[in-house]
């Protein structure tokens, strides 16, 4: 087993570990489950570019798709709940209660899905992929990885140039995540100060966008809650939370713009 197949195995093992803990609906575990899926998807993009077991990759992605979808619904509610509690607007516990009720139902849907996940079939596919990856040499990996990073940056620049506001931020974040996963892989194969610095910048940028996205999904969720408000008092409370959230979201938007101008658009 070479370093590449070892790196992939580590990510797949981590995915299965957090999948086994998903029924507990712990916020951090659900977050790590989704992070692992996102990392695996990015890494499988590299494997696909290397021409490794294309049909097998498609089957692995398909098997994880529903887990990603339903864990995303749960994660969205968890994030919204955490932000509302963090902002600590007077009376916020009424909104937290509404989110908690929603969380329990979504959690049941995820638990049902996890119970049906065919782990043995998944592990056999991963083992077969590992054998194929072990035959790839480092020069091929670096060439394919550099191409992906270049292509993702090109997509980010195009989205930035076509934007008038925040409408493309979420898509840009997806591309930054892919770059981050690929850089982590390259650094696991070879120590490189230049790559480590690039990873630090990409990680900071993606983190800002992640916090912005959390605020964005809360804004949408609050809109739904406000529309179903049982009385004017509750509606007023939700409006106050929305205003606070929008203010924080604007700060993050400005931070992202500055990050782009400082590190990605300076030439």
Could you write a compact summary of the structure shown?
With 267 residues, the chain is mainly α.
Could you characterize the architecture of this molecule?
The chain has one domain (3-263): Alpha solenoid (CHAD domain), CATH 1.40.20. It is built from nine helices and no strands. It has helices spanning 3-20, 27-49, 54-87, 93-116, 119-133, 138-162, 169-189, 193-227, 232-263. The protein is flat, with a radius of gyration of 20 Å.
What's the layout of helices and strands?
Layout: H1 3-20, H2 27-49, H3 54-87, H4 93-116, H5 119-133, H6 138-162, H7 169-189, H8 193-227, H9 232-263
Helix pairs in contact: 1-2, 1-5, 2-3, 2-7, 3-4, 3-5, 3-8, 6-7, 7-8, 8-9
What labels describe this entry?
267 residues, single chain, 9 helices, mainly alpha, 85% helix, CHAD domain
Rg is 20 Å
Give the DSSP E fraction (strand runs of 2 or more residues): under 5%
Q: Sketch the topology as an H/E string, one letter per element.
A: HHHHHHHHH
The helix tally amounts to 9
Query: CATH H level: which superfamily?
Result: CHAD domain
Our count of domains comes out at: 1
Q: Tell how many strands the DSSP assignment holds.
A: 0
Architecture (CATH level 2) name:
Alpha solenoid
Largest sheet at a glance?
A: none
Regions with pLDDT < 50 over 5+ consecutive residues?
none
Kindly state the percentage of residues in helix.
over 70%
Spatial gap, N to C terminus: 41 Å
The coarse overall form would be flat
């Amino acid at each position: 087993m070479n370093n590449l197949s070892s790196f992939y195995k580590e990510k797949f093992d981590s995915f299965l570990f957090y999948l086994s803990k998903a029924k507990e609906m712990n916020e951090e575990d659900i977050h790590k489950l989704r992070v692992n899926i996102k990392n695996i998807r990015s890494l499988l993009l590299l494997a696909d570019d290397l021409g490794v077991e294309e049909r097998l990759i498609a089957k692995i992605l398909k098997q994880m798709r529903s887990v990603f979808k339903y864990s995303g619904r749960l994660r969205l509610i968890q994030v919204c709940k955490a932000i509302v509690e963090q902002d600590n607007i007077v009376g916020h516990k009424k909104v937290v209660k509404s989110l908690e009720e929603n969380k329990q139902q979504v959690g049941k849907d995820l638990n049902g899905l996890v119970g049906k996940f065919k782990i043995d079939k998944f592990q056999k596919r991963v083992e077969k992929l590992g054998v194929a990856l072990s035959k790839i040499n480092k020069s091929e990996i670096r060439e394919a990885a550099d191409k992906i990073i270049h292509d993702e940056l090109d997509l980010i620049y195009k989205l930035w140039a076509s934007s008038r506001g925040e409408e493309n931020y979420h898509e840009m974040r997806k591309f930054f995540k892919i770059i981050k996963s690929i850089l982590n892989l390259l650094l696991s194969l070879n120590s490189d100060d230049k790559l480590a610095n690039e990873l630090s910048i990409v990680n900071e940028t993606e983190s800002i966008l992640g916090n912005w996205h959390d605020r964005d999904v809360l804004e949408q969720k609050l809109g739904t809650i406000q529309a179903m408000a049982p009385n004017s008092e509750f509606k007023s409370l939700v409006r106050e939370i929305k205003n606070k959230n929008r203010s924080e979201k604007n700060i993050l938007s400005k931070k992202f713009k500055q990050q782009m101008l400082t590190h990605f658009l300076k030439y």
